[in-house]
């Protein structure tokens, strides 16, 4: 089972790129972030035409998350975080797909910092950690995939000294990610590629992709049952090179 996560940065504006990537890679499950579309504007017919069932949690102009499943309909199990600090923002959706529980998340960016956006990020992380603690203990495989807007370590960012005061890299958020992995969640990419330079996001400015000046902020966290089945993980960098593409690349794992 291949489970991918892709911040599409506008599902309708990037639809040709999304469909090309789906046709070329055929992932079994896809977690999408930053739909930037209300529920009624989600391109359901195009997604179904590509062979995928879908559930989505949209929002006009901002945020938005969705889960796609190849050849079947995801069974929705949760929409929004329990104790979400701002339920008007569409940032979490969860579904069961072929015996795996998949949570799709778009964690707040938090910039500028300090300020209300960073305060909201910390509150959202706290609510997410509480849910993750419940899901961690489940016997079935659980995968929490999405754009975490967290750079876990210095090796996950080009020139880390430039990011020390950014909301993606400050101590508070890095410690939150470390708490998740210390509790027992497996960072899938790092579990299989512990020493490689791996990025999932490259800014549109200053030829960042061409220079490989990127960040690793899109992650799959796996509970013990899922981690035991982990066989492969990677980043589809070729999608980032397509015309009119997202500034993120799809990230994927394979479970036995």
TrEMBL record:
Gene3D superfamilies: Endonuclease/exonuclease/phosphatase. NCBIfam families: exoDNase_III (TIGR00195), xth (TIGR00633). Its cofactor is Mg(2+). It is an enzyme of class 3 (hydrolase). InterPro entries: AP_endonuc_1, AP_endonuclease_F1_BS, Endo/exonu/phosph_ase_sf, Endo/exonuclease/phosphatase, ExoIII-like. Its EC number is 3.1.11.2. This is Exodeoxyribonuclease III. Coiled coil: none annotated. One of its GO terms (molecular function) is double-stranded DNA 3'-5' DNA exonuclease activity. Keywords: Hydrolase, Magnesium, Metal-binding. The keyword S-adenosyl-L-methionine does not apply.
């Amino acid at each position: 089972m291949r489970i991918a996560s892709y911040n599409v940065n506008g599902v309708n504006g990037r639809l040709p790129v999304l469909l090309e990537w789906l046709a070329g890679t055929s992932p079994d499950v896809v977690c999408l972030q930053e739909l930037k579309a209300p529920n009624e504007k989600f391109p359901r017919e195009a997604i179904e035409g590509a062979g995928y069932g879908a559930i989505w949690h949209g929002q006009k102009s901002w945020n938005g998350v969705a889960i796609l499943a190849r050849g079947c309909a995801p069974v929705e199990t949760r929409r929004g975080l329990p104790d979400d600090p701002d339920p008007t923002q569409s940032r979490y959706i969860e579904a069961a797909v072929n015996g795996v529980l998949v949570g799709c998340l778009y964690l707040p960016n938090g910039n500028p910092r300090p300020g209300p956006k960073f305060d909201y990020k910390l509150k959202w992380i706290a609510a997410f950690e509480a849910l993750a603690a419940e899901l961690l203990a489940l016997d079935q495989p659980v995968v929490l995939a999405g754009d975490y807007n967290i750079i876990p370590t210095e090796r996950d960012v080009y020139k880390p000294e430039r990011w020390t005061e950014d909301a993606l890299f400050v101590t508070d958020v890095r410690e939150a990610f470390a708490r998740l992995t210390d509790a027992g969640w497996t960072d899938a990419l790092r579990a299989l590629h512990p020493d490689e330079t791996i990025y999932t996001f490259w800014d549109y400015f200053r030829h960042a992709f061409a220079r490989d000046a990127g960040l690793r902020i899109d992650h799959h966290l796996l509970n013990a049952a899922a981690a035991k089945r982990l066989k492969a993980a990677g980043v589809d960098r070729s999608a980032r090179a397509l015309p009119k593409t997202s500034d993120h690349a799809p990230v994927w794992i394979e479970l036995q």
